[in-house]
Each structure stands twice: as C-alpha cells, then as structure tokens.
Amino acid sequence: MDSKGSACSNPNPNPTFGPSKLMLAFRFLRALSIVHRTTPASSPTCRGRRIERAAYASMAYSAGTSRAWSRAVLRRLHHRARRRAVAPRRLSTTAGNRAEALRRLVPGGAGMDYCTLLEETADYTKCLSMQVELMQGIVDSASSNGR
Amino acid sequence: MDMNERDECSSEKNENHLNYHNAGFSSGWQFRNPSVGIVAGDQRGSMEESFNPSLWKLCESDMPAIAKPVPATSRFDDDGWTPPDSSSRGGSFLPGGPAILSPTLSHFPADSAFIKRAARFSCFNAASLGGMATPFGASHLAGAQIHNIDINMAKDASLHDVDPGEAADLGGGGHETADSSSKDLAAKKRRRPAEELEVEQGDPQMAAAAKRESVDTDHKAEQSSSTAKPNGKHAKDASDAPKEDYIHVRARRGQATNSHSLAERVRREKISQRMKLLQELVPGCSKVTGKAVMLDEIINYVQSLQQQVEFLSMKLAAVNPRLDFNIESLLSKDFLQSHGGTSSAIGFSPDVVHPQMHLSQQGLVQAEISGNLNHPNAFRRAVNSMPNAWDEQLQNVMQMAAFSSNSQQPRTQ
Q: Could you tell me which residue ranges the IBH1-like N-terminal domain spans (chain A) (predicted)?
C-alpha cells in the first residue's frame, strides 16, 4: 500500500527509478557475509549459487515491491518454486518472438502486456547493471586488497 | 447532497482541480445518462444546477461550439487525476475529447464506444470520489451495470471495420479543436503530431484491415477484462491509484471513436516511449534503429547481465576470508552505530540473525533502514557518488571497516 501510494504521488513518469545504491550495496554485503559465515565448508558452486540468490534478493528488496519483477523474484525466493529460480539459463532469442524471449528473461514477465514488460525491463536492467557493478567492485577490491 | 459533496471536496483539498474534477464528474454523468438510458432523473437535475456554475466559471469560456459536457470532460482529463506516467501523455489527448466527440456522434449516434467511455467515467469517478461514496452509490452501481453492457458492446465494436472517412474526420476534428481551445498549449503541441501520425497511419491500417481487426479484437478483450477488475476493486479501495489511472487513461482514449485507432495509438506511443527509455539504459543501443534490432540488443544485454551476476557470484564464492572479515566488521559496526543507542532493540545480535540466512532478511532489512540512513559512515557517502565510482567507494568502505573493526570489535563480540 505504501509503495503504491508513493508511486502515485510521484508526478514524474520516469523518476530515478531503481533502488538506491546504498541500500543495494548494504544488503548485498550483508547477505554475502552471512553466506560466507554460514557455509564455510560447502562447495564453491553451492556457495556461488547462494550468493547469486542473495544478489537477486538484495536487488529485489532494494527495488521494493512496487515493481513486478522484484515481486516475482521475492515470490520465487520465498517459495522456492524452482531450483534455478531467478535466471533461466538458456533461451533461444532466435526463436521467433522477441517479446517472448524478453518475457522469459525478466522475472514475472510471463503475464505482462507489452508496455508493462518494457517498463519492467527497463527497471530490471537498471538494477541488474547496478548489481553487476557492485559485484565487480567487490571482486576487484577483494582481489587487490586481499592478496 | 450536492452541496455536501462540494463542501467535502473543497475542504479535503483546497485545490482547484478537485473542483474541476467535480464539475467534470457531474457533467460527464449527465452526458452519459441520456445515451445509455440508465437515468437517475432527480440526481441528474440537481447536479446540473449545482455544478454548472462552477463548471463554467472554471472551465475556459472559448469553446462555444461544443456541447456542454465536453469541455468538462477535457478539463477533467487535464487535472491531477492522471497517473504519473500518463501526466505527460495525458495532455496530448485533451483536445481529443472535444475533437473526437462530435464526429463520433454524427457518425455513430449510438456508438458503443461512446457508451463504454461513459461507463468508464462513471466507475472512475465513483471510486475516486471515494469519500463521498454514499451520495454517489447510485452512480457507481449504474456504472457497473453499464460496464456489463459495455463488455458486450466492445466486442461488437471490435468486430466491425472502421471506415476511413471516420479516421480522417477524427484527425481534422482534432486539429480544429486544438486550435480553438486556448487552454493547454503544450497539450496542443503534443496532440498535433499525434493526430498527424494517426492520419498517416490511417491508410496502412485500412489496407491491412483484416490483420488489424484481429489485433484489435485482442486488444479489446484485454481492455475489457482489465476494466472489469477495477470495477470490483473500486468499491473496496479508492486509493489504489496507479492501476485505476492507467485504465482510466485507456478509457479516455478509447472514448473518442469506436476506438481501434485511438487505442492502438496510445499503445504505440507508450511502447515507443519505453523503448526510448530502454535505449538510454542499454549501451550501444542508441545507434541502432529498428525496434526488432533494439529488442535483440536489450535481450542480449539483460542476458549478459544475468550471466555476469552468475559469474561474479561464483567468483565471490571463491574469493576470500579477508573480504569476509571486512564485511563482517563493517556490519557489526553498523549494528553498533544504528542500534547501540536503543539498546532495548529487537535483538539484532548477529547470532540471532545468522541462522535465518539471507533469504529471510526482510524484517532485518526493514528495521535497519531507519538506523542506517542517519549515520554518516561510508555508505552514506556512497549515496551521492557517481555510478562509476564504485571501486573507490568500496575501498573506502573496506578501509573504514577495517579501521573501525579495531576499535569496535571488542564491543561486538
């Protein structure tokens, strides 16, 4: 309700959408530390998967519930609907319909009409690139600092 | 009843547009009634009396040729009830209200789209004036009834062809009225290209009548089903603004003709707007022309980002203990600073939190937003940083964390 209210009170159609970097970074770092602490002995792939999930979770939390994609991500995370919840691995963009491909890429895009899909894609892309920047930064600083 | 309502309105918010809205409501309601045939006669009469003065005072006086309710409708369109993302585009259709109405009326006296538009207005208004639900309960019910009719009618409408003459009329009318109404210059400017676009696109559309017909049928179905939902919702919750407004926009545009071309235009406009937005976001996409190629680019970009996330998380899983240490100390520092003062807090000790894992951080996250935002650590600085300054920011964070961990580590453990 709150998010909807704020969305409606905002007169600007495309405000600085996407989450604040601060919160995204904070959430992700915390999740990362938790993952590292709680899975000290597990295999790197398992841990990597958890980190990936944490990345998407922190993205979704930072984006808030006003976005369809973040709701979809959170729903999947909470219900564990699928093993590979967030990012479907392979998809063929060549197979005819591009909108379908996009729909499969963007979480929660399945039932969307085209306009909404594009809007969600924009927001999702923004968050995702932010997340990638953040992760890249962490990796870089870790590899330069840590060794 | 009417006086009551007006008082409520003006006391709730001291804004003109609410009055406009009011006026628009009443006259839209009046206008609809004769055409639909569900009439609450006394209501109509009294509304007319009480609202017309304010309506005419507030609306512009230079639209003499158009039937009374029409400017009211456009005025209604103009005010603050449009959703965030339609406020820019909403303007472009303002002159369309009056413009389109007259041709439509002359061509199709009993046009179903017209009825439909009326029905939409009624539901929107009934809900948006939520506080005054009681006086307008009747109108809301009527709106719902009309809507039922409307779904059937919409299907009919989507089945018969638009004749080219109508589209042309539509364009012409748009120009005329846009010229005559001196109210909203920006809206006019936006409207004109749109009209021209429409006129241009009229011919190909007519040529591809069969194809478009099927598309429009789909569109119609979508539209009517999407309007069917909020009708129920309105009664419960009038503050559910974004969805309503979105639908409202559609309705407003659909009202003009038997609506194929208008609805399609709205859709196209929206899509191209979003495409532009995406174009800015996706690197290398600005040079590309053509939507298909652009979509390909977007898909590739999203896909690559997702793969990058995957890759980086694998990398992060491999990289480590030292990083781990830094982050931990950083976090413990955050805990101390944000919750240290209120030691009665909800038990945010790391021990409590950790078993729950990252999947159930929600409560923690929410609780921490407030605390986190008002202390000036490195994160705080990161807010205003430029996008490509991540590295330095992170360095700062790490250093600060390392520094502070020395002093504060004893307190945490």
A: 27-80
Instruction: Give chain B's length.
Output: 413
Token pair belonging to B40: 């609450």
ipTM of this predicted structure: 0.78
Minimum-distance CB partner of A129 among B242, B305, B320 = B305
The domain spans of chain A are 19-142
- DSSP code of B160? S
Which two three-digit tokens encode residue B46?
Answer: 């009294």
Partner-chain residue, chosen from B315, B331, B358, that has the shortest CB–CB distance to A57: B358
User: CB of B186 within 8 Å of any CB in chain A?
Assistant: no
pLDDT one-digit tens code per residue, B336-358: 444 433 333 333 333 333 333 33
B326 CB-side CA count, 13 A? 22
How many alpha carbons fall within 13 Å on the CB side of residue B376? 0
Q: Do A141 and B398 touch (CB under 8 A)?
A: yes
Q: Do B95 and B84 form a contact (C-beta atoms < 8 A)?
A: no
Residue B343, Cβ density class (10 Å: 0-12 exposed, 13-18 middle, ≥19 buried): exposed
Contact A17/B at CB under 8 A? no
Confidence band of A25 (pLDDT split at 50, 70, 90): confident
Provide the 10 A C-beta neighbour count for residue B208.
11
* Structure tokens that stand for B157 in this block: 């409408």
User: CA nearest B54: which of B29, B82, B17, B80?
Assistant: B17
Closest CA relative to residue A137, chosen from A43, A16, A55: A55
Buried b (16+ CB within 10 A) or exposed e, B352-384: ebeeebbbebeebbebbeebbeeeebbbeebee
Please count the other Cβ atoms lying within 10 Å of the Cβ belonging to residue A67: 23
Judged by DSSP in three states, B256 sits in coil
Q: Which of A92-96, B26-30, B314-318, B395-399 has the highest mean pLDDT?
A: B314-318
A29 and B331 in contact by Cβ < 8 A? yes
How many C-beta neighbours within 10 Å does residue A38 have? 15
Chain B nearest-CA residue for A90: B303
Contact check, Cβ <8 Å, A14/B277:
yes
CB atoms within 10 A of CB B38: 18
Mean pLDDT of B210-232: 42
Rounded mean pLDDT of chain B?
A: 48
CA distance A137 to chain B (A): 5
Taking phi first (over 0 means left), then psi (-120 to 50 degrees means alpha), and beta for anything else, what does residue A95 get?
beta
Specify the pLDDT at position B75: 39
